[in-house]
Amino acid sequence: MAKLKFLLNFALLLHFVMSPSGLPAETGNPIKREACLAARIDAYRDTNHKIWKASGALFLIFGIVAANIIVTDPPSARLMGKSPEYAEYYLECYKEARSDIQNRDALSGCVNTLTLIVELVDIYYFYRAVPYIKENWR
Structure pTM? Predict the structure, then answer.
């Protein structure tokens, strides 16, 4: 029962960590709303999801830390001809969205690897116990 409770709590925690957050620009400012929406879409397109999942899977916690530290700026060509206010909001939302996406991908890879390790350990100990079970089964 304790294992089940732990697994349910862990699944709930993963749900909250992995679920995408809402738009931070839900204010009355239409420039901020438009800039943040464009920034989130561009950040999702610019992120190499396979690399961040692989970094989380291979380097575990170090991959997650790297995902939080390494956040690149968008290409400056996207901001040409835009107002300074739009550019400021765009950059702020882009960096936040890119960090969130990279962090989520790295965490996903880390969880996949940890799940695989737990399953391999479980299989190892199960097959180690099989001779004992066969020997004492009556």
Answer: 0.69
pLDDT, one tens digit per residue, over 109-124 is 999 999 999 999 988 8
- In angstroms, rounded to a whole number, what is the distance separating the alpha carbons of residues 109 and 6? 21
Task: Say how many C-beta atoms besides its own lie within 10 A of residue 67's C-beta.
Answer: 27
- If one counts the domains in the chain, the total is 1
pLDDT digits (tens, 9 = 90+) for 94-106: 999 999 999 999 9
What range does the domain containing 51 cover?
Answer: 24-110
Dihedral angle over CA of 85, 91, 92, 98, nearest 10: 160
Indicate whether 64 belongs to any domain: yes
What do you get for the CA distance between the two ends of the chain, in Å?
A: 28
Q: In a 10 Å sphere around its CB, with 0-12 CB exposed, 13-18 middle and 19+ buried, how is residue 109 labelled? A: buried
Specify whether the CB–CB gap between 74 and 39 falls below 8 A.
Answer: yes
**Which DSSP letter does residue 97 get?**
H
Report which of residues 12 and 122 the model is more confident about. 122
